[in-house]
Specification:
2 copies of one chain form a homodimer.
Chain A lengths: L3 H4 L9 E7 L5 E7 L1 H10 L3 E4 L4 E4 L8 E8 L6 E7 L15 E4 L2 E4 L7 H4 L3
Parallel strand pairs in A: 1-6
Antiparallel strand pairs in A: 1-2, 3-4, 5-6, 7-8
């Protein structure tokens, strides 16, 4: 199978690019993670988001532990081909490991980061299985 | 002036984090660039997006050449504090140097990246001044 489309991506020195997961319905940005070539290939094949975990140094099929998989409706890249944008449907409505819908729950308020999104589910409950 | 809020950001080994510019009205993701500490400080101070140009190795007040500045309504960070999200109003309605509204104009269609957003203004016209 041709992989010309994967060659077009400008992987960084570590072979990675940032990938943004955006709620396909609301436009809300849910999270940013990283992908290597294999992660992007698998994401396209599966139709579910697969990232590269930099801390665990392995492929990470989002939701493999939490059940909070991400159904991928659209894959985009930008003018420099060094960022991936996924338009997704978030299973369970929770993308963040803190139990919030979005990872972007800290908003700058003057000189402080204020938490502006509620925890929807206790993380201990999400990850106990 | 206290800079505790800047210390909270997990700058990478190059002292940078990715910054996403999102249209505050439509939720559309317009571009991703990079910020260092000074860029984020200036963005907050000015209320307009200032990035770090990795190619030119200098601060880049977005729109300084094109006139397409970005008015910043909100600054967020994620659970790991290693990505910045700006909710902005895009002057001129064009964020991309190709003359398109958004940099994310390439959509994966099978095994090919298809261009799915129109050029709104000839880049030669944008940058000739």
């Amino acid at each position: 199978m041709s992989e010309v489309w994967l060659n077009k991506i400008a992987w960084n020195d570590d072979g990675l690019v940032p990938a943004i997961a955006q709620d396909a319905d609301t436009g809300e940005i849910l999270m940013v993670a990283w992908m290597n070539r294999e992660a992007l290939r698998k994401t396209a094949d599966l139709g579910e988001a697969v990232y590269w975990s930099r801390s665990r140094k392995k492929l990470w099929h989002k939701g493999e532990e939490s059940g909070h998989t991400q159904k991928v409706l659209e894959i985009r890249t930008d003018c420099d081909e060094d960022v991936i944008l996924l338009k997704i449907i978030q299973t369970g409505g929770i993308a963040c490991h803190t139990g919030r819908k979005s990872c972007f729950f800290q908003k700058l308020d003057g000189q402080e980061w204020a938490t502006v999104e509620p925890v929807l589910k206790d993380p201990h409950e999400i990850y106990r299985k």
